Amino acid sequence: MSTLALNSRLGAALALCRVSNLPTVWMNVLTAAFLSDPAGSAPYAAPVLLLAFSLSCFYCGGMAQNDLYDLDHDRVHQPFRPIAVGAIALGAARALTLASFAMGFACLLLAPHRAGAYAAVALVIVIWTYNRFHKRHPSTMFAMAGARLLVYIVTALALTGRVSARVEVAALAQASYVLALTAVARAERHTAAQRYRWPVVPWMLAAMPMVDGVVLAVLFTPVWLFVGAAGSALARAGQRRIRGD
């Protein structure tokens, strides 16, 4: 197998999983971790990194599953998608989806509290619900928001076995933002003849860490605004190499 072929397959897998958006997940996990401690002290790095990787796996699995369900639509409307263009085979995409979810659960079993793994079952159900029905039922945008909310819940439960009121506030703030983002993205898809002149959806995706930054800045210190901005900049930089929308 040539290096070029390997890079092509790797690139297709990364695009399938929308890895450019992963900084948004990492910021969600970091926010939930800090808010789970009553004193707001820095959590231990190891479990937070483990959870960031675990939730990244769920995100990647969800994105891959999304393209599997949307294949017929993508072949007509979004032929650049990895499966639709033939850059990655159906079997490989299915295997990547299952492996991502399995790895996510495996990591959660190593977390301080098993409650996170139980909550992740709800996360996978919500992800599947959105992916399976979102083309036919606009109300599934609430499932998309719910999936992002559950990132905070899973993190908090895995770290402490409970969900504090502050975690709930951050989760609801982000879920509300994702609800607005999903509505904007759906409006663009349904008015293809009048696409946004400016990349609104990619920028809204990249701005998600700033929502966490604002919440943490209000609760702790304005320094968190810079952390949120850094997360957004990282996501936007990644989108220039791998599409995140």
From TrEMBL:
Membrane topology according to the record: Multi-pass membrane protein
InterPro entries: Prenyltransferase_related, UbiA_prenyltransferase, UbiA_sf
UniProt GO molecular function: transferase activity, transferring alkyl or aryl (other than methyl) groups
Pfam families associated with the record: UbiA
Keywords: Cell membrane, Membrane, Transferase, Transmembrane, Transmembrane helix
Gene3D superfamilies found in the cross-reference section: UbiA prenyltransferase (1.10.357.140)
Transmembrane segments: 45-62, 83-111, 117-133, 140-159, 213-235
Source species, domain of life: Bacteria
Record's subcellular location: Membrane
GO terms for cellular component: membrane
PANTHER family in alphabetical order: CHLOROPHYLL SYNTHASE, CHLOROPHYLL SYNTHASE, CHLOROPLASTIC
This protein's name: Prenyltransferase
